[in-house]
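Translate sequence into structure tokens.
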Amino acid sequence: MLKLDFHIFKHLTNNTMKKLLLLLLIVPMVSFGQISNNYWEKLNEVNNSNNSNNSVLSATKTEISNLTAVDYFKRGMLKFNLKDYYGAIADYTKAIELNPDDSDLYKHRGSLKQILKDYNGAIADYTKAIELNNEGAYEQVASYLLHYERGNSKNDLKDYYGAIADYTKAIEVYSHIYVNASLEYPPFPSDAYYNRGISKENLGDLNGACKDWRKMKFLLEAQHLSIQKKCL
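Result follows.
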């Protein structure tokens, strides 16, 4: 099964969607207020040096009192870069306690739970993020990613019907994005079709799986020879 690593956007042929993806990646960070420069300089030193010594990271905590949701989120991002996933989740959780209506916070925490194979926890966070998500251009991109990744978590739990429902919704949202972006040659959500095919195959629906796989633009690549043989 393909895990999303933002590679689904490699087929983009228009700057409009590239800007939407950039928006998805940077909006949660650039909208934050300013806090102690010294504090973040020290955290960035830890991050840039790849030093995962907890005492170094913890020593900076005393330099700011009354951290905001923004502060916890930014610190969680730095811990993520240090691969301190549990520490990052703890900071995202603190941020959510202070700002429970922010869809992005649930999205980020859900992705970490998915990395740690806490699929039920990831599904719960993705579901909450979907509930809080709005209908703007940025939110449409986020909606695709959220449904796609929630489908992956359901697939990992062998909830294949639930996974198919999420992949189907992701494909639907994806098509709306490109209609709104007015692309002459809209790219295709190949990953969602591929994974939906996997779920269908796991349910014994090989015909349905092959229909999805035949829609993939990269089906003819060498690594998919096994799929080609199944669908002869």
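Note: Confidence is low (pLDDT under 50) at residues 3-40, 51-56.
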